[in-house]
Structures are given as structure tokens and as C-alpha cells.
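Co-fold these.
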Amino acid sequence: MVITETITQAIKTAVEKAGISYDGDLTLEHPRELSHGDYATNIAMMLAKAENKNPLELAEIIAKNINAPEIANIEVAGPGFINITLADEFYLSQVKEIFTNPDNYGWNTAWQGKKILVEHSSPNLFKPFHIGHMMNNTIGESMARLAHTSGAEVTVVSYPSDVSLGIGKAVWKLMDYGVEKLDEFETVAEKMAFLGRCYAEGTQAYDAAPELEARVREITQDIYEHRDTPAYAAYKIGRDLNLDYFLKMTARLGSSFDGLIFESEAGIAGKEIVMNHVPDVYTESNGAVIYEGEQDGLHTRVFINKDGNPTYEAKDIGLLKLKFERYQPDLSVLVTDSEQKEYYKVVKTSAGKINADWDEKMVHKTHGRMQFKGTKMSSRLGNTPLVADILDAVVEEVNERADGRTLTPDEADVIAIAAIKYTILRTQAGKNINFDPDTSLSFEGDSGPYLQYTYARAQSVLDKASHLDLEPQLEQPDGWQVTDLERYLYRFPEIVDLAFRDLAPHQVVTYVTELAQMFNTWYGNTKIVDQDDPATLYRLALTKATGQVIKNGLWILGIDALEQM
RNA sequence: CCCCCUAUAGUUCAAUGGAUAGAACGAGGGACUUCUAAUCCCUAAAUCCAAGUUCGACUCUUGGUGGGGGGACCA
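Predicted complex below.
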């Protein structure tokens, strides 16, 4: 049985023995201070009023009746907390767990046999891959990995925007420059930057010159209908370049996709569904088909415009259908920018009236924005930092900091990505991040590289021990003083479970950072490898266990651990 | 005008309604002949304002103020 359940049961039994009937929930938490114990419950304070007793006295009575082999000590403290300290054998048993199943330590089976679908990193082909996409990718990838820890079968999809008026504008600009201009750029990144410029400049030109509208609409239609025209040919070139670049870039960041669902596919499916549900779900208004969100406390949105074309809303309905048909998920997670929050509520609510699963089995998670010193970025204006540029800059910074070490280009890349991902994931998803490339990216203290460094440091210790023929041993030596590490390691599965339930990677960040700090402090005042000290072997076990938990935590964050740095 | 989100050290972030609000950066002071100093130790420094609920509030409620997002044919 999981330790939290064991203790919860022991407390419930104790409450019963104290002659109190109570079958509500009770909170079991880790006290902020390790000196207060490993778990604490506020049950006495909660019951005191109803029982008309002093909370401290009540706590004493309950505490006396709590009994479990895993518990070493129970104390009543503060306003009526019952503090529980676990037994040395329990800590040891958990370190053994880590050794038994290292690569899956922390995972559980709550969703075994079920399917979870995650959609993230959906690009707009022709728009550059900028920092906002990186936020989405980082957060989405981590949520997908959290889903994996639950034992579920996880499928990851992306939903590229391959048709839109905006793309028509970009293609117009591309043709205006001449498609052959693409050949002037050597690297793919430069070609991408150029296409991004076409998108921004095409939009500007369109806004400034109304006479362009007819031509742009024609191009857009060429794309929709795959007409054999120069515009469609130009579009194909740009689209394929972008898609290829997108897949390579996300792979570099550590993501892969099991499937792509294109906006053009979803549009066709969506229009049909929406039309089939007029007037029971959607209604006609001013020539358009809308959903009246006011009936649900939301706002009205247009699903099919007066030209008969599906808007993004209808496309999202089509997307839902395709997702549920193709993958039959028990839970479908969508990760987008928070600007789509209110919008998606309308889509989701209306979708639920067509198929209840589309609402009930669907979770929309949003992430905040990167704000650059208060300036909202806008990819449309083309002044947004591109992921490629940011990575280059950070890699350069990493190499400067390497300070005598030899880093391979891959290692520098992995460290740079860790630094960026950490800044994104440390904050609760949904909140905006104030990003200043000069100061936000840290390589010291709370940072991705700090975690990587701590892991590498642990490996280095193990390495040294190994050369001395010293191997970790799972046995607490006589007179062993339990360390903070042991009292923290066993919490990892709890943290992972909590983080999955809320799809909140930042909880993993916080935990792994604290664990790393504990390890480094321990490292600082303990000589781990000491041939004359028999406790060395158990210290090596702790070192190995800690490294493993850091590595597993980093995996959830989508950050690679380095064996040395 | 309406709806949603948000406000914590100088800065960037933590804190299932609990005990003395934690880290990191920056500032000041220390620690490498010893397992990796991208590290560690010490010091100073914070809950937007006003009411309310509660044994107990950064957390919940109401009203302000500042910031962000959204509000019919963009995505």
C-alpha cells in the first residue's frame, strides 16, 4: 500500500478508537519544516469544534491511537497538528524501490489501459517558429510526458494550419518577391526567416492596399482547392519547407508526433457537422452560422461565415471529430495560448451538445505569454524572437560559461535547451512569463543547467567509487543518521501523481530543484567516498538513487540529463 | 461597457485553508592541496488596497486599483 494511504487509514482508525465518528476527508500534508516530521494532519483542529474539545487535547488522544509499522514517532505540536515521523526502515525500503525499478520510479498505473491524446505545438505554416511556439512545445511536451507517468497509452498530435487567408497573403508576397528568391538563402533557418517575412509583409501590404484583396482571395482559393496554378506551386514549396522545418525543430527540442491533422482536413469535417446541427445546436444569423454562447454564460461566435466557409470554430469541431474517431481517447488534452481560453469554451460547450465526449473527455490547458520587458510580442509584425535565433544565442552563452570544459555541440545544445525549458516550466502554466533574454536565462541557481550539473556531479561520484571497486549497497550502516535526502526521495511518486492530476509540470520543477539543493548541500559537507568509512556504500546508494530521481524528473520536463558537464 | 486571468523580497518564481511565507538572481561577507566551485555556507530584503468568512487567510467571498487576454464573420 502507498504510504499516504497507510497513514490515512491509521489516522482514521485512531479517530474511531477515540470514540469520534467522522468519515470526511482528512488532509495529510508534508510539514514545511522537515524537523516537524514527514507528515502532519490537522484532523484534531477540524474536529475540535464539533466535539467541543480543546484541539491540543483532542490531538493527544488521537495521536496516542495512531499505529503503523512505518511510523517511528508521533508528536502533537503547534495549534493542534499531529506530526508523524517515519521509520528508518521505511526510507530504506523506498531507496530500494528506486533501485528495483529505476527508469520507472515515480510512475504509477492509475490510467493503465486507457488512452490519452495530447495536442500541442500546432504551427501555422508560413509563420515563423517563434518563442511562443517554444512555450507551447515545452509545456505540451511535458504534459504529454506527465500523461505517460500515469500508465496511459499516450498519443501526441499536432494540428498545422495549412490553409487560411493569412497564408494566401504570405504566398502573394512570396510570388511578389519571386519564388526563386528562396534559393538565395543557404540555410533552412534563413529560408524560414524569409517566409516569415513574407507572412508579415504580405499582411501589411494587404492592409495597406485594398485592391490586393481579389488577388489574395484567388490565391487562397487556389490553395483550398489544390488548383494547378503557380500560386499553388509556390504554396507547396513553402508549405513543405515549413513542415519539414517544424518537425526537425521540435525533434531538436525533444518532441515527436504520432500524427498530424491538418486544418484543411478539419475544415471539411467541421463544416459538415455544423451544418448538420442547424438549428438544434447552431443557428443562422445574418447569413452566418453561429453558436449563441449567451445561453451558457459565454459569448456568441461565428462557426460558418456568410461566404459559407468554416471559421476556426468549425474547424475545431471537425478536429474534435477526427481526434475522437482516429484515436478514441479517454482523455484529450489540448494545449494552446491563453488567448484562446474564452474562445475555446464556446467551441467545447457547443461540441458537447453534439457528442458529450467532445466536452467531457476534453481538457483545454493554456499557457501564458512571453512578455519581453512589457512588450507583447506579435508574430504578425515580424518582430518576435525566433526559436532558432534564441537557441543560437543561448548556445553561445553556454559555451562562454563552459570555462575550460570541453562541450560537444550536442551537449551545448542540450544545456541551452534545458535553460530555456526550465524558465518556461518553473512557472505555473497559464501565467505570463516575463522574459528578458539577458537575465531570465540562468545557468546558476534555480536553473536547468543546475539540475543537469547536479546529476552529472552524482555520476562523477559514482564513477570515482566504481574505480575504487566500491559499489552502492542497500543497507543502512550501524548508527546511521537519516539524511534529508532519504526523507525527500520517497515523495517523488506523490509529486508526479499530483503534477499529472493538475497537468502542472512546475510542481516537478520545484521538487527536483529542492532535491538537487539537498544533494548539493549534503555533498558540500559530507565526504561521500571514503574508503575507510563503511557507510560509504550506503552513501553511494543514496547518491545513485538521487541521481536517478533527478533524471526521471528531468525526463518529465523534457530535459536531457548529461552524464558529465 | 461586459466576461475571464492575474498581483508575493530590488528582480524572476514557489507556497493541496495551517506552524517562523520558501528559493534563485542581484547586494554584502565567507569556503577549492580534499568525490566536478555551472557548487556550498552566512547576512539584509516581500503577501496591491479595504472590508468579510474561519480556530487559522498569500490562498476563500465582496468592493476597489494596476497589468494581461477575450467580446460575429482573424487565428
